[in-house]
Each structure stands twice: as structure tokens, then as C-alpha cells.
Write a structure and sequence with these properties.
heterodimer, A: mainly beta, 4-stranded antiparallel beta sheet, 53% strand, B: mainly beta, 6-stranded mixed beta sheet, 54% strand, globular
Chain lengths: 116, 115
């Protein structure tokens, strides 16, 4: 299996532009997590899906952020409009069973976003 | 509610010496505990996990951790550090029953290995 795939790996954009980050889950996994990592705030959970349904989006910073799972294997995280403070590395992670407290998360390589 | 505290933001060791990365947790229920490692410019990778079986857990690359309920700790150890161990390490807690399944990550400990 190729593991969790994220694209693009790097994104540089200007303030006010729309940014879309993409994630392909490992085949057969039921849960999907989006994280943001910065030096100042560490690793923050943004949103968590189980079986394509958003379970907890309390970590989504504000209305400028939205996430979707159009099917069981794919997710997008959109920022519109982007701001310089959104600059971070964004990770998605999938896990096999969904709702199992002992589930391992499998992380993608991340997307490094820079908003100028 | 669950929380996790990594007691050191940085740990510096010499190659060949033991490694100790400290983690304390708080959980209202029976927790699962994890250690993940992140090498520079990479995603996180599971090192080991505790899920209410044996309290001494062995992971990849010679790492192990011991779950101590009385001390609410889950410290990560390795007998002899290697240069390739230099990375960021995250302790994670997830609890079952009542609360949310969502795991909580610590702030991370940066392990520096000197030749």
C-alpha cells in the first residue's frame, strides 16, 4: 500500500487566495483526521471524520476553513480566503477501524503551506 | 477529560548513551497511550502503543515504554541512542468510555543526539 497521500507537498500562495489541500486515505481505513502543525502551537487537530461523517470539527479555526469527504477514500481541506497566519504544515492521518480508542493513526507526509 | 504533558521540550544525549523521554497523562477512563516519532520534514510514525495489555511495551528501533498507572506516566526509553534517533517525539493519550475517542497529542520532545 502506498500509505496516506497528500498533495500538494508544498504550496505558496498570496493572502486572499483560495487554497485546497488533498488527502487520499489508505484503502479500507474508516477514519480521517486533519492536523495543523506550527512551531508556536504544535500539532492541532482540526477535524475528524468517521465513515465520511464529520464527528468533531471544534478545532477548525474559523469559517474560512472547510473540510469534506466526498467519498470513503478522499478528503479536501479548503481555506478561503487564506491569510499569512494560516502558514503551517498540514497533515492528514487515517486509521483503520474508526471509534476504536487503540487505533493507530497513519500520517501522510504533510503539505507545507506558505501564505504571503 | 484527557491530557498529556511531555516534561521536556528538548533532550540532548550522546550517541551510545541511554534515552529517556518523559510523559505524564491524565485520563478519566482507561486510556490508550502512544508514542509517535517525526523525523525532519516527514509525517508522524507510530513507535509503540499501550492498550491495556502488558504494561511494558516494546516498539520499533529498540524503543520501549512502561505504563505506570500509579504515577500516570508513560516514559519512553532506549538503552543506546543512535544518530538516526534524532527527531521529534510525541506522546499521545486516547481514552475509552464516556468521552471522545479523539486522541490528544503532547507538545513534543526534540531528541538531539551528539556524536
Amino acid at each position: 500500500d502506498a500509505g496516506v497521500i497528500q498533495s500538494p507537498r508544498h504550496e505558496v500562495t498570496e493572502m486572499g487566495q483560495e487554497v485546497t489541500l488533498r488527502c487520499k486515505l489508505i484503502s479500507g481505513h474508516n477514519s480521517l483526521f486533519w492536523y495543523r502543525q506550527t512551531m508556536m502551537r504544535g500539532l492541532e487537530l482540526l477535524i475528524y471524520f468517521n465513515n465520511n461523517v464529520p464527528i468533531d470539527d471544534s478545532g477548525m479555526p474559523e469559517d474560512r476553513f472547510s473540510a469534506k469527504m466526498p467519498n470513503a477514500s478522499f478528503s479536501t481541506l479548503k481555506i478561503q480566503p487564506s491569510e499569512p497566519r494560516d502558514s503551517a504544515v498540514y497533515f492528514c492521518a487515517s486509521s483503520p477501524y474508526g471509534g476504536d480508542v487503540g487505533d493507530t493513526q497513519y500520517f501522510g507526509p504533510g503539505t507545507r503551506l506558505t501564505v504571503l | 477529560a484527557q491530557s498529556v504533558t511531555q516534561l521536556d521540550s528538548h533532550v540532548s544525549v550522546s550517541e551510545g548513551t541511554p534515552v529517556l523521554l518523559r510523559c505524564n497523562y491524565s485520563s478519566s477512563y482507561s486510556p490508550s497511550l502512544f508514542w509517535y516519532v517525526q523525523h525532519p520534514n516527514k509525517g508522524l510514525q507510530l513507535l509503540l502503543k499501550y492498550t491495556s495489555a502488558a504494561t511494558l511495551v516494546k516498539g520499533i528501533n529498540g524503543f520501549e515504554a512502561e505504563f505506570k498507572k500509579s504515577e500516570t506516566s508513560f516514559h519512553l526509553t532506549k538503552p543506546s541512542a543512535h544518530m538516526s534517533d534524532a527527531a521529534e517525539y510525541f506522546c499521545v493519550v486516547s481514552e475509552t468510555g464516556g468521552g471522545s475517542y479523539i486522541p490528544t497529542f503532547g507538545r513534543g520532545t526534540s531528541l538531539i543526539v551528539h556524536p
